[in-house]
Amino acid sequence: MGNIRFEALKTAFEHKPAVVDVPEGKVKDYFAQDVFTREKMKEYIAQDVLDQLFDDVDNGRTIHRDIAGVVAIGIRKWAMDHGATHFTHWFQPLTGGTAEKHDAFFTLGKSGELLEEFSGDSLYQQEPDASSFPSGGIRNTFEARGYSAWDPSSPVFLIGDTLCIPTVFVAYTGEALDYKTPLIRSTAALCHAAREVCAYFDKQVKHVHANLGWEQEYFLVDESLYTARPDLLLTGRTLMGHNSAKSQQLEDHYFGAIPARVLAFMRELEYEALKAGIPVRTRHNEVAPNQFEMAPIFEDVNLANDHNLLVMSIMERVAEKHHFRVLLHEKPYAGVNGSGKHCNWSMSTNTGINLLAPGKNPYQNLQFITFLVNVLMAVQRHNGLLKASIVSATNEHRLGANEAPPAIISVFLGKQISEVLDKLEHAKAEEAIIINAKKEMKLGVANIPEILLDNTDRNRTSPFAFTGNRFEFRAVGSSANCGAAMLALNAAVAEQLMLFKEEVDVRIEKGEAKERVLFDVIKKYIMACKAIRFDGNGYSDEWKAEAAKRGLDCETSVPKIIDNYLLPSSIQMFETTGVLSNAELHSRSEVKWETYVKKLQIESRVMGDLVVNHVLPAAKRYQTMLLQNVLAVKQVFSADETASLNAMDYSIIKQIEEHSGAILERVEQMTDARHKANRQSDERAKAIAYHDNVLPLMTQIREHADALELIVDDEMWTLPKYRELMFIH
Ligand code: ADP
Ligand code: MG
């Protein structure tokens, strides 16, 4: 029988760049072609209905069923004009990814005749079987059924012959079973709180948006090599594999030329994404071999998150056509960079002001500093929670690894902004704010030049970095639903802005001048939020010690980091902002622990299977060959001669014996540890047992397996090696 690795390699080399069928025309000819945009709605829906719909959507009001009924008819007509036969509610369960349930656009009439139908009710609400999605106890405690409900703020779109309707997914009792529901609640909370604070500076502000610009990193791997690696296939990452002699040390992949086969994939991916209305703009190689990135222009956070989830599924679909597989796992390969999904986050107003960008006049600058400092306070207060919002069994391998953000949340501000804050901290109100007779204000020390903030002042080791006009939350994982991180951030900032307003208002009511109070409170905050500010090297050991001294959350065990969702400060924050209830927080933590356990359980089983069925047989075959050789040499040469002749063989035979023995012993221990962990009835305890007792054994097994890979005859090794997975494209 042939070696499957060599067969896979042969097929991989035969894969040539695919012919891409992308129209020559301009992007605007096909941008959002598959989306029922507001523009297109005008063709299908009466203007007065649309006016009502848009007004409700823009002001966060519930859509009336009558309106939904009329809109549904327009949607169906448009979808069927474009070849759709089915529709689905498209939602974001806590498993990650997206879920769909397809129904055809027809129903049977009273006498059994076929009726084309898509009613307001089907647009409004659908009932997928909630019991097959994780709910972390909500199902048992509250109500068995859940339903998905239309989110009119994100437009419907087509995938092939299916109309997709972005929806929230909630239990019958109203508890959120998804990411979208609390994300929408968090944008409402932030909008409200930020608008109130904006009112100190500009009464025209009626609406504040949270924006998200994600940068999706991913790896590509040839499909035939992928299928020859059961670990990639089943867990999304390599559970073993020795480092390639050449990996990323030359850093020649970053911004290097994109290989032809990959370029073909990217062009088609971008075309599909643009048709779906996703404004993708940037593509480049990333640091590791076969690692790439795609980024769109930022959008409102809810829409941007839908677009990110959609892109992840488009990627997988397009990759198959190009004989690639996309690895969205945060750490598919040990020893090279992992993949993140940097979330660029900002707040902007309906008046066109970016609240995180320095302004054109002192008022705007004071406003900018106000929002900046409040974000710092929020991140400091909830640093453990924000970490909880980005951890997972998969991101765990990336965080704290040498190239990724450390497992401690801190904020990088850069030299310029740090100096402004330092000056403000030490300034007297009279120096800082000069109020003349006309009540015009001059912000003496915080006069920040308009186009400052160059992009070169970057710190790649910071998990949360200010980049001139936004914060970049860099710790988010590549496979994550960014909603989890964004809703925690929105809610934390909303809470903080509410606290700020309370504090300021009390003093204004007592008769103090507004500018003076704002200045005082900001100054107090600048002093209070020093712990979270860190511009140094986040990878260093000194920082770990320093961060612990500052009282930042330094926990590295994922199951324990998840505890942060249930801290009194977290529960209070989520409840006062109305983003998540106590029950929802408990259910979410349960789901996080449960998912963690399941992932590790699968990995550990696959690992056991791989070593027992691939690694050890290859090693034994090679060892047998060496043993036969030793015996043959003994027959031909004299005893004196064989001693030195066989030295190398002996040594390898012995090493194989030792590594194989160690592997078998640890596989047994790992199986035991798993069984013990499985007997825990509490999900948290189970997750901790997996983290503490199963994971370390997997690491040890890997070390021995990787050592064997180095020794065993290349021709006998059946698993595609790192150099093949990473360098063939
Ligand atoms: P880099 O890799 O240098 O961080 P990219 O160009 O890859 O930058 O991605 C930057 C992302 O940040 C893009 O999605 C971009 O649209 C987004 N972005 C730019 N300005 C803002 C802003 N004010 N708020 C949110 N996102 C922004
Ligand atoms: Mg980038």
How would you sum up this structure, described in words?
There is one protein chain. The chain is an alpha+beta fold and 729 residues long. The chain folds into 3 domains: 145 residues, Glutamine synthetase, N-terminal domain (Ubiquitin-like (UB roll)); 394 residues, 2-Layer Sandwich (Creatine Kinase, Chain A, domain 2), CATH 3.30.590.10; 131 residues, Four Helix Bundle (Hemerythrin (Met), subunit A) (Up-down Bundle). Helices cover 50% and strands 13% of the residues. Strands 9, 10, 11, 12, 13, 14, 15, 18 and 19 form a 9-stranded mixed beta sheet that branches. Strands 1, 2, 5, 6, 7 and 8 form a 6-stranded mixed beta sheet that branches. A two-stranded antiparallel sheet has the order 3-4. The protein starts with a helix and ends with a helix. About 1% of the residues have low confidence. The structure holds adenosine-5'-diphosphate and magnesium ion. The site of adenosine-5'-diphosphate has 15 residues, from strand 9, strand 11 and strand 14.
